[in-house]
Model the fold of this input.
Amino acid sequence: MKHRLLNPFSAVGLMALLALTLASGRALAQEKIQKPVPGVPEFFTLEGQFVRIAYNNEGYVSLGYRLANQSVGEEWMLLEIGATVRKPTENHLLKRGDITLQTPDMKTIPLASNKEYQGAGLMGLDRRAKTVRDSINYFPPEARQACPIVFFTQLDKRAMPREQVDLSWQRACLGRIFFNIPGGIQHGQHWLTVQFAKSVVRVPFRILTKEEEKEFSGKWKDIKKEHEKAFKK
Done:
């Protein structure tokens, strides 16, 4: 599926990012939250209330975080992730250490190890993910071959975990990833950071309060339409 995406460093892009990660301008004024700027050249959009996409000329990442938004206070965060490289980029081995999470208190958290995941007894979280999720199957049109991201044991699929996944521009790779969050998941601005061979893609997502979620739930489609309309001009 082909997308038209906004440049977050443009005036329109900054406004879009602000609208996507805050429920309202009133919340910004009250909480004095800064505009989320990735700090790296990339493009950004959304395909659902809890689905985000960011990419540059090398790498492409999609993210689903509905379950994480419902898990405030819990010490484990589950994210649905999609990744590929963009044509004509050479194949890239995406390793476990290439994926990190930045929390609202500016801590950088590495992807959990499979041993940590197994020891935490997260089968219940896995089961919840089967019903509380959004499709993140959005990729450039060239990426047509299905590809699993299996950093963690998948008991129901009997798949052995791997420490890396081979990305190519023909492959659309999907999977679940887990982070252990000391002190529990917080409301506020988060960043999923993915290191490719020559660049970094940072996907912004905000864990919403109940008030923000309620207000934003009825607006994201209109926001998306306005973003795409502005981009075409």
The chain has a mean pLDDT of 83. Helices lie at 11-21, 25-31, 66-69, 114-119, 123-131, 210-217, 220-232. DSSP finds seven helices and twelve strands in the chain.
